[in-house]
Amino acid sequence: MNPIDFEIRTHAVFGEGKVYALADILALESFSSIGVIIDVALKDNHDIKSALDKVKDAGFKAEVFFNTAAEPEYAYLDQFREDMSGRKFDCIIGIGGGSTLDLAKGVATLLKNEGPALAYRGFPKLKNRPLPVIAIPTTAGTGSEVTYNAVFTEGKEKKKLGINSKYNYPLHAILDPVLTLSCPMSVTVSSGMDAMVHALESFAAKNATVYSRMFSREAFRLVYNNLIRVAKHPRDIEIRGNILLGAHFAGAALMNSGAGPSGAMSYPLGSNFKVPHGIAGAVFLPKVVRFNCENGYEKYNELHDLIDGADTSLPADKKRIEFAKRIEDLCDALNVPKKLSAFGLKKEDGNFIVEQTFGKPNATVEQNPVPMKRQDMQKIVNGMF
Questions:
Q1: Can you tell me the distance from the alpha carbon of 196 to that of 283, in angstroms, rounded to the nearest whole number?
Q2: Kind of pairing between the strands at 11-14 and 33-39
């Protein structure tokens, strides 16, 4: 039997209206003084304001701060730590998309550990355990509410490094699909495709196990079948809930199996050319999936059969090629660009992306189930101009 190593350290609650359980969770942990970090776009969100009013009515002291950075840099994290220092918080709550949840994790770390944020880049050994974090996602994409990663960008080199520590796992996560109703369709698509990248790459990763693939499969089923529908039914709470839960499962799977080439290439595209993270990965995803399928990878066939209306009777060799087409069709339906030139890139910029990805040993590329050499990636990127 193949060995299994899998962990989830976050208690999660899911359901419509669950954001109002926040006060009960705080009482359960006996917290009293709370720092709340909210995405500034949600400043006037009725449900968030009402949930925080309930927290204050229950006797908790809660001070609110607003995140204005779409993709925070380490310098911004330092500034945020400075703004929040001097209080005796016993808990940090993050409410927003992945960047806001990551900011909450980063602040929780720095409020208990001295020194600049950049000193903790990568996988640091922390002297002190961070403050507990409660994560409340308002987008369905990153799965940050169930992972220990907190992504930040180094300002000068434009590299995403993060503060990654097993102490960073949120203590609690509240998944309330009502909060995702405020997402514009562009954010819904970008976030949803981020979850799709996580689902597919965690499923195919060499380090995937029978345990992690249970999460990857369910994540794929929920995200794929509902992303197709959400554009026509943006206010449907069941559809929104399915995508949110799928993104959560995909985050758990990715945390335990690792990412792949699409994720690896998305970082230089996002950091250097300001492409939203979910779209940056989605641009490459159909190319990577087709590369794998055309080179004989058939395990995607399990996912093919989870697509609503798919012909499950196809022979394996045809099924894998049909699956590659299904991923391409999904991206087309959601208007994910096929060409890097859509973001203003030139061919030499494509070479830069390959160089940044292969410039040093890259475990995410090595995770791909089909060996991908530098020339393979170069061919993929060259075909996107």
A1: 12
A2: unpaired
Tokens of 250: 């995909």
Query: What is the chain's pLDDT, residue by residue, as a tens digit (385 residues)?
Result: 788 999 999 999 999 999 999 999 999 999 999 999 999 999 999 999 999 999 999 999 999 999 999 999 999 999 999 999 999 999 999 999 999 999 999 999 999 999 999 999 999 999 999 999 999 999 999 999 999 999 999 877 778 889 999 999 999 999 999 999 999 999 999 999 999 999 999 999 999 999 999 999 999 999 999 999 999 999 999 999 999 999 999 999 999 999 999 999 999 999 899 999 999 999 999 999 999 999 999 999 999 999 999 999 999 999 999 999 999 999 999 999 999 999 999 999 999 999 999 876 678 899 999 999 999 999 999 999 9
What token pair was written down for 197? 């990248």
Both tokens of 132, joined, read 């507990």
Q: At what angle do helices 22-29 and 46-57 cross, to 10 degrees?
A: 40
Burial of 75 (0-12, 13-18, 19+ CB in 10 A): middle
Closest-CA residue to 342 (of 279, 264, 288): 279
Residue type, 104: A
Phi, psi of 73 (to 5 degrees): -95, 165
Query: pTM for this one?
Result: 0.97
Domains of the chain with bracketed CATH: 11-181 (3.40.50.1970), 183-382 (1.20.1090.10)
